[in-house]
Design brief:
This protein is an alpha/beta fold. It has a single domain, classed as Rossmann fold, CATH 3.40.50. It has seven helices and eleven strands. Helix 3 crosses helix 4, helix 3 packs parallel to helix 5 and helix 4 packs across helix 5. The structure holds adenosine-5'-triphosphate.
């Protein structure tokens, strides 16, 4: 479903002519299969968000190839990437990333608008989705009028409204209390079992990692793969 081949990534910082190169990812070879829940763990600064941003096309690798759902995405133009994202990817973030000037309904509706879906169908889909995540009664509320857990549910509704086959999540439970965290994790497990949705989750949280079929560890920008095998971890370095 997601394939990364010999990915290297470096950032250039500083003024033009005086740039300094920061190498962040080195020789990443990895695959995520359809229907897997994969957790990416590693210390702060090890390159987890960079890896996820590469999968989502928000940044391009310095070298190497990325395939998502069979498509060599590294060669897509910005416009093609945007369409590809709408068709294949959903996103969850720690900070929810809701638009403050839009109601819960409008935030959840956004991907449908971008996809050009008509008003009647949008209304039906959004209300079904808000119902499913338990915030239908807050459809007319702005993010500032919602609790953290409610905002997260609206954000999840927006992530899932186009029924994406792959969801990329960066610390999705980072701002949630333990009740809301458990509910989100069980929703992820249900989606995975019922619809076969593939999840890649960056996390520092053991409870989140515990729902993953496989955990990938990044250390200083390199993969240190840890496969769960009946409770024992077997490490495989690249
Ligand atoms: N846009 C950028 N420009 C320059 N350096 C960057 C940029 N984004 C990330 N970095 C650097 O790349 C390294 C990896 O960052 P990244 O955010 O991928 O780590 P992370 O493992 O997700 O960390 P955390 O757990 O703290 O979120 C860090 O040293 C960071 O400073």
């Amino acid at each position: 479903m997601i394939e990364m081949n010999r990915i290297n990534h470096q950032f250039a910082i500083g003024k033009k002519g005086k740039e300094r190169v920061i190498p962040v990812l080195h020789d990443i070879d990895m695959q995520v299969k359809q229907g897997e829940i994969v957790a990416i763990v590693g210390r702060s600064g090890s390159g987890k968000s960079t890896l996820l941003n590469l999968m989502s096309g928000y940044i391009r690798p310095t070298s190497g190839e990325i395939r998502v759902a069979g498509q060599a995405v590294t060669s897509l133009s910005e416009g093609e990437w945007a369409n590809f994202r709408l068709a294949h990817l959903g996103f969850m973030f720690q900070s929810f990333q809701l638009i403050p000037s839009m109601t819960a309904f409008e935030n959840a509706e956004l991907p449908l608008v971008l996809k050009g879906i008509g008003l009647a169908q949008r209304k039906k889909k959004v209300m079904e989705m808000l119902e499913q995540v338990g915030v239908a009664e807050y459809a007319g509320h702005y993010p500032g009028e919602l609790s953290g857990g409610q905002q997260q549910r609206v954000s999840v509704a927006r992530s899932l409204i186009l029924n994406p086959p792959i969801v990329l999540a960066d610390e999705p439970t980072g701002s949630l209390d333990s009740d809301n965290e458990s509910q989100l994790l069980s929703m992820i497990q249900h989606l995975n079992q019922d619809r076969g949705t593939t999840f890649v989750l960056i996390t520092h949280d053991e409870q989140v990692a515990s729902i993953a079929h496989r955990t990938i560890t990044l250390k200083d920008g390199r993969l240190l793969n840890a496969y769960a095998t009946g409770g024992t971890l077997v490490y495989e370095t690249h």
